[in-house]
């Protein structure tokens, strides 16, 4: 996205503000679809947790996406955005049976990752098709907090518990039409992904009435110039051959399902902030901005890298800065980072701010959540208003004591 457009948005809507490039989201969706064009039946379910603004969901619906949801609230957002229940996969972890029952009433596809819940649900709803989330015991992902397929993970039913799954299916006569895995995020080595896929294929052979296999996602995107990323084309070429061979062996054309979140929206997102103070200490030059980990927690939570550009002086001489926020704990976005010379009032832009940024924002320190803006086909749309003090008080009940 051109820097002049981002500067115009900062002037029109103020800072901090999230900006999303709708055309980039569409391009990423097409890139993944094209990589697996050799598969007869492909379904891409966008992972709502990455960025849940309803306008983004509507944009992806227009491209033919389904949804991967992890809460009943995300299910309701999907329905509100116009998705049919059949287009929504619900993959909770550790939720109550009441929430799962609500999802069943809404008619969405349920993905179960717990033997106890599987047995309870199968006994009560034997005719309702369900998917089963398998834990392949594969360590994959760019950070321990986002690696979810290893043996100590709380997610999925262990492949070693497959006999228990089959016994529950036999006893309840329940209908299992899908099998699923998700090993983690920021997977760079496609051989790890293919290895986990082989485990899933072997497990799938034991289920006789499958309609689809869901391989999750976790594709790594680049965070800076020259950064490595998952080779989607190579993965598409290799996994397509293997998937088609498995379908022939299985005796049925299954649907290959992915559930990308970060892959679709990360690079499309920009976070605009204003520099409040440039503070020189005995050892460091701090650029202190009008935001904090209440708006962008990923660097503190995952040690994630976000490239930072000084939009107000993009061609200026580079100096070293530590970019920090205004929260009452340490909230450092970048340590000793080379950025074009920064002055108070400059607009800094954080790249790769589309995934798990606004969706993890909070009102910590009673700060307002930022505005969200969508740029699509060269038109700018406000898709979420900046919060006000009334929003902070909303739902609070004042008790005179």
Q: Secondary structure elements and their pairing?
A:
Elements: H1 3-13, E1 17-21, H2 22-35, E2 42-47, H3 54-62, E3 66-69, H4 72-80, E4 88-90, H5 97-106, E5 109-112, H6 115-124, E6 130-135, E7 157-158, H7 162-172, E8 176-180, H8 190-204, E9 212-214, H9 232-250, E10 255-258, H10 262-265, E11 269-280, E12 285-289, H11 298-302, E13 308-310, E14 318-324, E15 332-340, E16 347-351, E17 371-376, E18 379-384, H12 389-393
Helix pairs in contact: 2-9, 6-7, 8-9
Question: What report would you give on this structure?
Answer:
The chain has helices at 3-13, 22-35, 54-62, 72-80, 97-106, 115-124, 162-172, 190-204, 232-250, 262-265, 298-302, 389-393, and strands at 17-21, 42-47, 66-69, 88-90, 109-112, 130-135, 157-158, 176-180, 212-214, 255-258, 269-280, 285-289, 308-310, 318-324, 332-340, 347-351, 371-376, 379-384. It is an alpha/beta fold and 401 residues long. It has two domains: 22-263, Alpha-Beta Barrel (TIM Barrel), CATH 3.20.20; 269-386, Lyase, Ornithine Decarboxylase, Chain A, domain 1 (Beta Barrel). Helix 2 (22-35) crosses helix 9 (232-250), helix 6 (115-124) runs parallel beside helix 7 (162-172) and helix 8 (190-204) runs parallel beside helix 9. It starts with a helix and ends in an 8-residue tail after the last helix. Residues 140-150 have low confidence and may be disordered. This is Diaminopimelate decarboxylase. Specifically catalyzes the decarboxylation of meso-diaminopimelate (meso-DAP) to L-lysine. Its cofactor is pyridoxal 5'-phosphate. Substrate binds at residues 298, 302, 329, 356.
């Amino acid at each position: 996205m051109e820097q002049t457009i981002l500067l115009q948005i900062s002037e029109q809507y103020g800072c901090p503000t999230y900006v999303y490039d709708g055309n980039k989201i569409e391009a990423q969706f097409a890139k993944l679809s094209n990589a697996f064009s050799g598969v007869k039946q492909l379904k891409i379910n966008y992972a709502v947790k990455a960025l849940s603004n309803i306008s983004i969901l509507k944009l992806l619906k227009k491209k033919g996406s389904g949804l991967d949801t992890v809460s009943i609230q995300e299910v309701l957002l999907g329905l509100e955005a116009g998705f049919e229940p059949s287009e929504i996969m619900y993959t909770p972890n550790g939720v109550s049976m009441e929430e799962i029952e609500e999802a069943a009433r809404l008619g969405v596809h349920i993905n179960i990752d717990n033997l106890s819940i599987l047995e309870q649900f199968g006994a009560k709803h034997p005719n309702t098709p369900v998917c089963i989330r398998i834990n392949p015991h594969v360590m994959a992902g760019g950070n321990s907090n986002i690696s979810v397929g290893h043996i100590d993970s709380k997610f999925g039913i262990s492949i070693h518990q497959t006999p228990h799954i089959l016994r529950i299916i036999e006893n309840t006569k329940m209908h299992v039409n899908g099998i699923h895995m998700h090993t983690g995020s920021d997977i760079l080595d496609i051989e790890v992904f293919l290895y986990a896929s082989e485990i899933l294929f072997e497990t799938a052979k034991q289920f006789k009435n499958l309609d689809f296999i869901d391989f999750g996602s976790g594709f790594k995107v680049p965070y800076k110039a020259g950064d490595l990323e998952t080779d989607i084309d190579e993965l598409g070429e290799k996994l397509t051959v293997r998937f088609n061979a498995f379908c022939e062996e299985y005796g049925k054309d299954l649907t290959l399902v992915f559930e990308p979140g970060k892959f679709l929206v990360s690079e499309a997102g920009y976070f605009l902030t204003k520099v409040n103070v440039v503070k020189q200490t005995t050892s460091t030059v701090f650029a202190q901005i009008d935001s904090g980990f209440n708006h962008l927690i990923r660097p503190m939570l995952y040690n994630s890298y976000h490239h930072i550009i000084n939009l107000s002086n993009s061609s200026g001489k580079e100096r070293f800065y530590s970019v920090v926020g205004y929260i009452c704990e340490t909230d450092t976005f970048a340590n000793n980072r080379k950025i074009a010379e920064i002055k108070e009032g400059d607009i800094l832009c954080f790249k790769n701010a589309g995934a798990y940024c606004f969706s993890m924002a909070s009102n910590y320190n009673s700060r307002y959540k930022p505005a969200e803006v969508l740029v699509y086909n060269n038109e700018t749309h406000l898709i979420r208003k900046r919060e006000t003090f009334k929003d902070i008080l909303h739902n609070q009940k004042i008790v005179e004591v």
